[in-house]
């Protein structure tokens, strides 16, 4: 049996039809009920015949000059017919308002994934049937959502830890006697450097050995390093433990996208990703608030303990509840089991190719380690979109470092209260979450239907241009409000667009990479994460010098102008992404 090109079974090589319509038209199409669906509903409704209409029908059935038909009777019938007509119009209007399209419409689903089945007579091991319950795509809804919720919880922990120390910089620098501002920010930024290193080997390991084992081991390592972060004897050891904690904690962001691709078909991934991403988006915005109160009350070291305790509990749940989801690994284990049970060493997995059969485990691991780097540097699409998101992500962590200082020095807020400013960013994340979870899958279904049933990954990207325009607003709004000492509410409100814009950019970009490379989704997200984390690690280090030389207003304006210059990036990828992918394919 031929091996499918991807675990989703979807063919993304078919040409997409050119359309002159803009991204806003797609949003309108999603929000507007389908006319075809409305016609179907109207044709299915049973007509209501009122008493007046029956009397009119009886009257009209009589001969024009027939007996018993008087002028008074005709006038009464006409009057009642007028009343009935008005009532009928009102009834139809109410029905249209209250009626909802069926959730089980055939248009709500793309073509189902065709699973490779076992053919033992040919020595091939695959799935037992298209409805095999051991196939992650066929898991029950409850089991899938349990896995996604656990993934969201554990993914919350590392991003929470990444920025929870930002309000405590002055406390640990005072304890360790550090006066250099750049060195003082290192424990915060170095965590993201670990985020950049970890995905390079954790992603391929999850594709070779399985998602669950890598998820558990890496999170256990993260928990151990958090103990070191709570008990460092000096600043150097704090930096080292923070780096190692970032390496372990990066696993959730790295392979989470692959797990979503394992569990959900294309038309359901947007909603699942929005649930999973609650952790890594809400976590960093809540962390400065939590860290500020911890540092100002019970001590900055407790920031690490607060991350360690829930991380350990959720990791324990992963051991007993979380399922293995990697399709290839599941069939690999099934093949090994059948070889022993049936005494047939020649059996092979349906996902194996002649090339993979000839490779040793060391060679497979080496190729897996190179895969994220190949995707990052040989795919113009992944490099460009990763570079754009990386810059925006770097400005986010620059804000995490600078906002507490701004509100403490300009507005006289305490360390604990200054963290409240990030509530505005959390509100922006929430608004972006609601928008993405509602529109993403619906737009994919409608655009695929309009494209003759052919799905293209670029269908995830139409709304990115609008969020790219929203993101720069924060830097001008917040920056100049703080520079001119405007009311604190003006500065806090100015942070909202950044949260909204980042979520609206980050989520479609991740979904696009997963759909473009579904078989290697973890490696694709790893490539995306590496560049993003490097920028997030080093850009904040330039913050103190930037604001010291230019001030809060012009310093933030520079960031805003750079964001404006990058607005064409998502537009170009949406319009020409498919052509670029086909012209420069990456051999993995």
Description:
With 588 residues, the chain is mainly α. The chain folds into two domains: 50-91, no CATH class; 140-322 and 359-583, Growth Hormone, Chain: A (Up-down Bundle). Helix content is 71%, strand content 1%. The protein has 26 helices and two strands. It has helices spanning 23-31, 35-44, 51-61, 71-98, 141-163, 169-176, 181-184, 186-209, 211-230, 235-263, 266-276, 278-297, 302-321, 327-342, 354-357, 361-378, 380-409, 415-418, 423-450, 464-470, 473-483, 488-493, 496-516, 521-538, 543-565, 568-583; strands at 124-125, 348-349. The chain has a two-stranded parallel ribbon with strand order 1-2. Helix 21 (473-483) runs antiparallel to helix 25 (543-565). It starts with 22 loop residues before the first helix and ends in a 5-residue tail after the last helix. Residues 1-57, 59-69 and 80-107 have low confidence and may be disordered.
List the defining traits of the structure above:
Sugar_transporter_CS, mainly alpha, MFS_dom, MFS
CATH topology of the largest domain: Growth Hormone, Chain: A
Q: Within the largest sheet, what's the order of strands?
A: 1-2
The figure for the number of domains is 2
Number of strands: 2
- The assigned structural class equals mainly alpha
Strand % is: under 5%
Number of helices: 26
First-last Cα distance: 21 Å
Under CATH at level 1, the class of the largest domain stands as Mainly Alpha
**How would you sum up the major sheet?**
2 strands, parallel
Helix content: over 70%
Element order, helices and strands? HHHHEHHHHHHHHHHEHHHHHHHHHHHH
Based on CA atoms alone, the radius of gyration comes out at: 29 Å
CATH fourth-tier homologous superfamily of the largest domain: MFS general substrate transporter like domains
Shape: globular
Membrane topology: Multi-pass membrane protein
Keywords: Membrane, Transmembrane, Transmembrane helix
Biased composition (Basic and acidic residues): 26-35, 45-59, 101-110
Transmembrane segments: 147-169, 181-202, 214-233, 239-261, 273-296, 302-322, 375-400, 420-440, 461-480, 486-508, 520-542, 554-573
